[in-house]
Amino acid sequence: MTGGSSESKQLERRLSPERVAPFRAASAGDLDKAMELYAWNAILAGSMSATMAHVEVILRNAIHENLSAWSAQRFGEPRWYLDPGGILQPRALDDIQSARRRAARGGRSETPGRVVAELTLGFWRYMLAKQYDRTLWRTTLYQAFPGQRSRRIVYDAATVLHLCRNRLAHQEAIFNRPVDDIRFVALVLADWICPTSRVWIERHCEIEAVLDERP
Questions:
Q1: pTM above 0.90, yes or no
Q2: Domain-located, residue 7
Q3: Number of domains observed in the structure of the chain
């Protein structure tokens, strides 16, 4: 194990040895190399966050657009999150209630767009779960994913996206994850919704370029 420069030692102290440990292990104990890997991991995380965010927005908007049209036609109320048909599970209703409160912070008017923006990726993933297979997926939500008719496959892809986003949000190491596979799943999920959007996201995705620069 290499002690490293005074700068690396100070950084390890400030970041915490526990946090640096995975990077040091991947660098054969060389602290200086570990800190280079740590810095590169942050760049990789940034590139992944951008791509994941694009796909998340497209996913939530696709579901929102579909449910709004369906709810308006079936119940005469486009605000599906008000649950006019009594379909949503308690967990979802709790998330929606919290999102509505956040959407109206500071005296703002509550709008569907603001409510949707406050709902997490975990919420949208849950909307694709088996609990809604008969009530939502087979009734309407499948139309939001013209490129993939299997709810389970779409749910699994959303799960990959969700787990990755959680890891990034907690600033955990990402260099030791199957990054290129995650990138592929994210792009495929976007493609199932809108091929044009997938092309745009892929064109602006920097993950592969960052992977090529790994120290």
A1: yes
A2: no
A3: 1
